[in-house]
Amino acid sequence: MGRADRSVNGVVNRAVSDLGSYIRAQRDTAQISLRQLAKRAGVSNPYLSQVERGLRKPSAEILQQIAKALRISAETLYVRAGIMEHRPSGPVVDAILADTEIDERQKQTLLEVYASFRRDNRTDTTTVPAASDDGPPTVPTTTVRPESEE
């Protein structure tokens, strides 16, 4: 096994261990036993124990069952497991994710466009003139007159 392979394995093992520790902490916070969580999540006690100790990496489906049993976001567990990237939250992101009339691909596209607009605005160097005491700044307009009014 090469040096790079050992390094990657180390990162994966730490992530799995961190996930297990996080699940255990959430279970402790919810004040439920390992046996109760295993039953609610539909997994065996030994399997859940191995997940908590970082010896097993559960599938996305199992993580969803565990999240539901803990009454936490499955997305949080997916991020911790490295299955999904962390998404910023906020009213716009939350509204997009909650929309039931668009599919996951459409949600992802909207989130990417929204994120790009936010990045562009953070790096935008255009300055906006400050409003004077006379009121808000005015926007120049052009009036088009019909030819008959000459």
Report the portion of residues in β strands.
Answer: under 5%
According to CATH, the homologous superfamily of the largest domain is: lambda repressor-like DNA-binding domains
Average pLDDT rating: 78
* Terminal-residue CA separation: 87 Å
How many domains make up the coordinates? 2
State the order of secondary-structure elements, H for helix, E for strand.
Answer: HHHHHHH
How many individual β-strands?
0
Largest sheet: none
With helices defined by DSSP (H or I, 4 residues minimum), what is the helix count?
Answer: 7
Can you tell me the CATH architecture of the largest domain? Orthogonal Bundle
Radius of gyration: 26 Å
Low-confidence runs: 130-145
Helix fraction by DSSP (H/I, runs of at least 4):
55-70%
User: In one word, what is the shape?
Assistant: globular
Explain this structure:
The protein has 150 residues and is mostly helical. It folds into 2 domains: 7-81, lambda repressor-like DNA-binding domains (434 Repressor (Amino-terminal Domain)), CATH 1.10.260; 91-123. Helix content is 61%, strand content 0%. The chain has helices at residues 3-30, 34-41, 45-52, 60-70, 74-81, 91-98, 104-123. The longest helix is centred in the first third of the chain and has 28 residues, at 3-30. It is globular and about 50 Å long. It comes from Actinopolyspora mortivallis.
List keywords for this structure.
single chain; 150 residues; mainly alpha; 434 Repressor (Amino-terminal Domain); 2 domains; globular; TransReg_Diox_bact_type; XRE family transcriptional regulator
